[in-house]
Fold ROK family protein.
Amino acid sequence: MRTIGIDLGGTTLSAGLVNHEGKIILRRTVDTEHSSGEAIIGQLCELVQSLCAGPASAEAVQVGIAIPGWVDAARGRVVTCPNIPLQGVSLAERLSSLLDCEVKIENDANCATLGEQRFGAAKACRNVVLLTLGTGLGGGAMVNGQLLSGVGSTEFGHMLLVRGGLPCGCGRHGCREVYCSATALIRMANEHSGGGFRRAKEVFDAVAADNTQAKAAFAEYISCLADVIVDFITAFRPERILLGGGITGAGDDLFLPLRAEIERICQSYIGGFDIPPVLPAQNGNDAGILGAAALFF
């Protein structure tokens, strides 16, 4: 049995043939077609077929797909998918019929969580929380070895942090995404300095250079992110908290002060158990492919 994982992104479609050890044996990437849902379905079929060519072409195939939106995984249906014309499409059923194989779909952050538990920084853990810090804030969780899955069940970025706070793209005010994403860090830095920051790396560089405004913004950001992580510790008692996204490339400049703030909060708030380690996710740009394949492992 061959397993194919597909990362369906707004810019590219990336697919890989994955073995049970989490190694991508063969991969293909194409630009995502936005003209119609049918065009994307055609691309998905072509990717699978290209990975199935060769001497083992008669071997059975199973296909997992990571999707950036709200997914009804049990029914194989895409509920909403921003910027990709698949809303309301019963994608698993359509592809299964066209490819004559089993197809599973899942939210991309949920897939990333599953991939880290199978192949990455949370290997063999039964209770895990993953947060992705990028343009927005996403995440997933596993509880007692089971992925929390459902229509929007792990939309962690759109849970309230500040009542009556800043407006969020979802229509609410004060969502965690507005205060804990990489975009939030850049906004805070510009608010403290009067402007000029365009990337999170520039903020970290300014902090390293002892820039007073950047340091104040970074302290504000760490405080917000630590509060959110402590909430997840309270709710899930995870063995590990994982952080993904480009901002984690800052390494210890991010993780050391963040861990220190989490420990400070927990020491006065939570007792009776060890504070879980907060670690960078390991699967990087392959998170979607590996996590989608892991739906079958």
Observations:
- The longest helix spans residues 212-236.
- DSSP finds nine helices and twelve strands in the chain.
- The two ends are 11 Å apart (CA to CA).
